[in-house]
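Postdoc handover notes: sequence design on the structure in folder B. Input tokens:
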């Protein structure tokens, strides 16, 4: 079936419908990963967004047991070519069937690199995927302009406390949309990880007397998480060691008086170089964010930059002065390098 991707700047791409046959409006973002499409699909940080894969062939090894959460989260999936006959000894199905199962629409057969150039030059924008050949752009445009991702953390967080047993340090993981491998990376190092819903109070977390606190990644505008920021302020005031990733990094910055802003088109992919300012060493990192901590508003008596993005100079991490707290914008639990920055979990354990 023919499908259309309509951007709010008036650009229209015509392709083929994949996944669920339904209309959707979402924020259109692109990911530059060549592999790992299943990890992308099941990353809760994509809630409220439609993902464009820049690599032209997607799905060649099918669906494998590599899910980062219990389900896929993007509103829609946009690819140049979708593999219909995957081949891999771990393959359990096709992306087409996976999208259908979770009622996610998509479009294939469009020039995804042309689309990516538009998003790079004009910035991230909203768009609609529809199979209606008689669409009325004048009626669609106000709907595109009005779309907001909103507070999507509540949609992706866990609903109850769970525990990964271990004999080492006890870590409280605040699930803001956590990828599975964050808890697993700690658990593999012997930690007992207690996973809490995003709306858990600081008092409840601290009452359990954890050795350390982990703030996870997650979707959306960090400034929408006002209630969570208030609880993180209380966690900051405690003497408990804290390590934060992605959204958690941004929320800790906001909780301590810094600011964030939306990037033109964000960082999404497995090939982003970041420099550790303490050693000068550069690591290849996996990233997925559209907002960034604004270094201009950092109070150097509270936090100092710890990592910087080599491509555009944006902040990639903070070290907090007089506190056992450090935070990073990228994903040390992912494997782009393949495990260049996994040492940060070891640093966290040493800190505890």
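Designed sequence:
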């Amino acid at each position: 079936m023919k499908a259309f991707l309509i951007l709010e700047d008036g650009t229209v791409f015509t392709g083929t419908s994949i996944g669920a046959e339904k209309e959707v409006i979402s924020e259109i973002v692109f990911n530059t990963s060549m592999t790992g499409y299943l990890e992308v699909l099941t990353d809760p940080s994509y809630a409220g967004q439609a993902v464009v894969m820049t690599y032209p062939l997607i799905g060649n090894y099918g669906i494998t047991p590599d899910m980062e959460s219990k389900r896929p989260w993007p509103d829609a999936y946009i690819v140049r070519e979708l593999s219909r006959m995957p081949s891999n000894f771990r393959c359990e199905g096709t992306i087409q069937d996976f999208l259908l199962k979770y009622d996610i629409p998509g479009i294939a057969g469009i020039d995804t690199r042309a689309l990516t150039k538009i998003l790079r030059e004009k910035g991230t924008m909203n768009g609609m995927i529809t199979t209606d050949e008689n669409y009325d752009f004048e009626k669609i445009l106000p709907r595109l302009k009005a779309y907001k991702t909103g507070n999507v953390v509540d949609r992706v967080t866990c609903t109850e406390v769970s525990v990964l047993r271990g004999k080492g340090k006890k870590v409280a993981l605040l699930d803001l949309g956590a990828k599975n491998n964050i808890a697993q990376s700690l658990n593999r190092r012997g930690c007992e990880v207690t996973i809490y819903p995003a709306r858990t109070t600081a008092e409840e977390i601290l009452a359990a007397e954890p050795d350390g606190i982990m703030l996870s990644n997650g979707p959306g505008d960090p400034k929408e998480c006002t209630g969570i920021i208030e609880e993180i302020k209380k966690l900051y005031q405690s003497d408990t060691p804290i390590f934060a990733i992605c959204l958690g990094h941004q929320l800790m910055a906001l909780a301590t008086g810094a600011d964030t802003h939306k990037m033109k088109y964000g960082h999404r992919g497995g090939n982003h170089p970041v420099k550790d300012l303490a050693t000068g060493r550069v690591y290849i990192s996996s990233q997925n964010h559209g907002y960034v901590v604004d270094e201009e508003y950092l109070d150097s008596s509270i936090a100092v930059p710890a990592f910087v993005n080599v491509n555009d100079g944006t902040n990639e991490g903070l070290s907090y002065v007089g506190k056992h707290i450090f935070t990073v914008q990228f994903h040390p639990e992912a494997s782009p390098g393949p495990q260049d920055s996994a040492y940060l979990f070891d640093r966290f354990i040493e800190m505890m």
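Context for whoever picks this up: The chain has a mean pLDDT of 96. Don't rerun without checking with the PI first.
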